[in-house]
């Protein structure tokens, strides 16, 4: 924690440090001045960040977070891993270097922000339900509910007939 604190101070960037909830994470991430999110990369945090077009600096701690960081960094291009696990040794200089790489006008930082905006647009399109347009998530939910309804009707039909 001390290395992270010193790194945040050394990089000269403004930051909000939330160690324990509750914090209005979605509100913070939706603010136009947020340019990166240091996160453990749990899936809810990933979705909240990318729904707002904010690239991530990943520090996975447990469970699926390690896979999420790998997916986000190597396949989608919206994350840069800064450390791995609870007991890893992290040096201030390494954290500063990665924060600056993401937040400054570097080729990598610009590419990550562009990709994060592209992912945001895909997410927004997937949940859109306007006029005759239904996004892919809305369509999938409709199909799921239709299937559940048919299954329920089928089970009721079978129960009524003693099947």
Summarize the structure.
This is UDP-glucosyltransferase. The protein has 163 residues and is mainly alpha-helical.
Main sheet: strand order: 1-2-3
Strand content: 5-15%
Mean pLDDT: 90
Uncertain segments of ≥5 residues (pLDDT<50)? Answer: none
Number of domain modules? 2
Q: Which sequence of SSEs, written as H and E, runs from N to C?
A: HHEHEHEHHEEH
Gyration radius, in Å: 21 Å
Q: Could you name the CATH topology of the largest domain?
A: Rossmann fold
Structural class by helix and strand composition:
mainly alpha
- Total number of beta strands: 5
Please give the CATH class of the largest domain: Alpha Beta
In the CATH hierarchy, what is the architecture of the largest domain at level 2? Answer: 3-Layer(aba) Sandwich
Query: Judging from the principal axes of the Cα atoms, what is the shape?
Result: elongated
Contiguous helical run count? 7
What share of residues is helical?
Answer: 55-70%
Distance between the termini: 62 Å
Pfam families: UDPGT
Keywords: Transferase
Protein name: UDP-glucosyltransferase
GO molecular function: UDP-glycosyltransferase activity
């Amino acid at each position: 924690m001390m290395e992270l604190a010193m790194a945040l101070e050394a990089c000269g960037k403004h930051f909000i440090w939330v160690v324990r909830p509750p914090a209005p994470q979605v509100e913070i991430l939706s603010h136009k001045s947020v340019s990166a999110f240091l996160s453990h990369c749990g899936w809810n945090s990933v979705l909240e960040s990318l729904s707002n077009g904010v690239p991530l600096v990943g520090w996975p701690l447990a469970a699926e977070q390690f896979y999420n960081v790998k997916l986000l960094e190597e396949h989608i291009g919206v994350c840069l891993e800064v450390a791995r696990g609870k007991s890893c040794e992290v040096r201030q200089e390494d954290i500063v270097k990665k924060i600056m790489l993401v937040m400054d006008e570097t080729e990598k930082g610009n590419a990550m922000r562009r990709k994060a905006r592209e992912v945001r647009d895909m997410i927004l399109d997937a949940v859109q339900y306007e006029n005759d347009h239904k996004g892919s998530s809305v369509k999938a939910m409709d199909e799921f509910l239709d299937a559940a309804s048919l299954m329920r009707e089928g089970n009721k039909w079978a129960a009524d007939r003693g099947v």
